[in-house]
């Protein structure tokens, strides 16, 4: 069956369901929320050169509207780096979709949506993750934030949470050995709908404090003159119980063509909230992170070509949360490239909020 006809039939079916519902007593409402983060970054390379920057990295506003208990609209606009001018800064419409929530086991979204890949792509507000910057894994392997035009079906049943996304595909001619698929995101701008991207994620939440799951993604990525089939496999687990935090993610991208045929990486976080020991309401969470990633882990050239984009990165840091919606962060780490054993020392300070 033609995919567009299938979409129309599903939409018509759901519309007929809602027409039969009595929602005369529901009061429509507007929702306003958002998040932001200010960063101080210092980098010292292997030659001793030091660079420092102070940047309001992100300012994000979320606007939603509920027509009924089941039908709503959700949107998110992001300004990066304070302003947009002459190629500097970014202004992006990261979400803008109609949402239908039939029941816990089924709902759908249609518009500008986020594929469900990894733990951060959908939920990336600063108080929700350790470290001033998002993990390198969510830049080089999974290009957070990844958004585009499409439709998604989601639900929860018997402690299993699922989401199936069909959205615009990637531009394979923008893939690179140093950044993997990141440059191939079309971000909803006149996106080519010829070869959609398919993403399925399933999580299990049946144990207290634990989320464990994974996702599969497939796309016949197409540029102006060529194509390159890719598949992405990732697994993730997150545990938060009795003030202890543990998190793990692993992802791998396989490419059909080109000099580099594989990108892969993983990281894990360990943290502990000291507020109970210190008898304070302020959460004080020291943490440790170890990351290993290679955006060109397998190349046709082999040798040094397999090493120049391989990095290992360890970080020690702390998050201080006087309330759940505000966080102050600090971290220090060393990132090492395998080729040449080049080291970069990084020191970061940050403040973030969400509401």
Question: What is the domain tally?
Answer: 1
Sheet with the most strands? 16 strands, antiparallel, barrel
Euclidean distance between termini CA atoms? 43 Å
Q: List low-pLDDT spans.
A: 17-22
What fraction strand? over 45%
Under CATH, the homologous superfamily reads Porin
Order of strands across the biggest sheet? 1-2-3-4-5-6-7-8-9-10-11-12-13-14-15-16
CATH class placement = Mainly Beta
- Helix percentage: under 10%
Mean of residue pLDDT values:
93
The assigned CATH architecture is Beta Barrel
Shape: globular
What is the CATH fold-level name? Porin
Please work out how many helical segments DSSP would assign: 3
Could you explain how this protein is built, in words?
There is one protein chain. The chain is mainly β and 355 residues long. The chain has a single domain, classed as Porin (Beta Barrel). Helix content is 7%, strand content 58%. It is built from three helices and 16 strands. A 16-stranded antiparallel barrel has the order 1-2-3-4-5-6-7-8-9-10-11-12-13-14-15-16. It is globular, with a radius of gyration of 21 Å. Residues 17-22 have low confidence and may be disordered.
